[in-house]
Amino acid sequence: MSSPTTQPSLWNNWAGNQTARPSRVVTPGSVAELAETITAAGAEGLPVKAVGSGHSFTPIAVTDGVLVRPDGLTAVREIDREGGTVTVESGLPLERLNLLLHSVGLALTNMGDIMVQTVAGAAGTGTHGTGRDSGSIAAQIRALEIVLADGTVTRCSPSEDPELFEGARLGLGALGVVSAITFGVEPAFLLTAHEAPMPFDEVLGRFDELANDNEHFEFYWFPHTEGCTTKRNNRSTGPAAPLPGFRRWLDDDFVSNTVWEGACRVGRAFPRTIPAIAKISSRAWSERTYTDTSYKVFTSPRRVRFVEMEYAVPREAATTALRELKRRIERSDWKISFPVEVRVAPADDLWLSTASGRDTAYIAVHLYQGTAEPAYFTEVEQIMTAHQGRPHWGKLHTRDAEYLAGVYPRFGDFTALRDRVDPERRFANDYLRRVLGD
Q1: CA dihedral sign, ordered 137, 143, 144, 149
Q2: pLDDT tens-digit profile of 88-115?
Q3: Cβ contacts of residue 245 below 8 Å, gap of 6+?
Q4: Residue 314 CB contacts under 8 Å (≥ 6 apart), including other chains
Q5: In Å, how far are 73, 81, 175, 399 from 151, measured between CA atoms?
Q6: Whole-number Å distance between alpha carbons of 136 and 362
Q7: Measured by CB atoms within 10 angstroms of the end CB, which terminus of the chain is less buried, N or C?
C-alpha cells in the first residue's frame, strides 16, 4: 500500500527562517511504506529528505523533491528493562518518549532543554544538553534501523554493520532515513536544581570548578550587563520537592515566555531600550531550588521564537572566547536582547559529534525573530572559529566542508561512508553539499 501523499505545499521551519516547496510530501505509516517511498523517488530521480519538528535553523531538511514526514512512525517496539534499552520509531516526539519511560520507571541519562523534537531529528542534528559525564541524545543510541537509498531496511549497531552505526548515530540525514532507534536508558531518577544569579567575572573565574563539581552545569549571560543566571542540576535521592504549580507557571511559562515575548517585541521596535531591559531581565530570575523528575528539570517550555547560532569549542578555550565575545559586544553598537547560553559536554566518539574527541563547551547566541543584527552572528563566528569551533549542525553558520574537515578528525570516514551507501546522493540538498562536499 502506498503512503499518504499530499500535493506540493510550502513548508516552514519553527523559526520561520527556512522554507521549502517539495514536489510532494509523504507520511509513511510503516517502514515498508517508507522504503517504497524512497525506492519510488529513486526511480523518478528525486531527492528525499526527512523532517521532524522543524526545530533546526539551518536548511538541513529543505528539498524540492520528496519530503518525508515521520508522523506515522511513532510505535514503541520494545522496552528491555534487563538490557537497559528502549526501541522506538523515528517520529516519536521526545516528550512522548519521556512520558513513556517515566510510566515504566526509566529515563534517558541526559536531555536538551526542550522536548518537542522527534527522536530521529534530535539525534541526527546533534541535539545536546549539558553534562559533566553524559553527552548528547545521539551518544545514548545503542542501535538503529535505517532505510538506505536503494530501499534496503538495515539494522546497525556496534556488532551489526558497525561502520554504518558509527556514522548513522549522528548522520545529518545524509546516509538514509532513520526508521527506528534503540536508546540506552536507566532507572528513573530525580534531579535537584539550584538556580542562582552570579556576576559574569565570578562565573568565568569559577567555570572549571562549577563544571567539574556538578553533573549538569550551565549559565546564561545577559549582554549589556554583568549579570548571569547559573543552573546546577545534580542527582538526588529525594524526596521530590517540585516547584508549586503556580510558581512553576509564573517563572517558567509566564515570565520566561509571555513577559519575555513582550520585552523582546519592545526591544525589536525600540532597540535603544534593550540595555535597560537586559538589566531588568538579569535580575528577574531569582534564586530557587527544587527537586523533580529528571526530564522536568532538564526541559522547559520555549515559545518565544528566535534564530540561533551555537559553536562548540574546546572546553579550555571557553572563558577566553566568552571574554572576547563580551568585549566585542561592548565595543559595538549592537543591541542584543537574548542571553548568551553556555553549556558543557564530555568528549565522545561519534564521528560528527560537536564533542568528538574533546571535552567541549557550547556557546550559543540568539536573536529574536525579525531582529536585524547580521553582523552579530558573523563576528561571533569569527571568534569561535579562531578557537577551532565546530558549529551545531542544526543552527546557523557559514562553514563549509573544507573548514569542517579540519576540525573533525573522522570527517573523511563519514564522507567515505556516504560515498558507499548513497553514491547517487539521494539524500543530498544544498546544505549537505556545502557542509559535506559533493
Answers
A1: positive
A2: 999 999 999 999 999 999 999 999 999 9
A3: none
A4: 358, 359, 360, 361, 387, 388
A5: 16, 32, 12, 31
A6: 12
A7: N
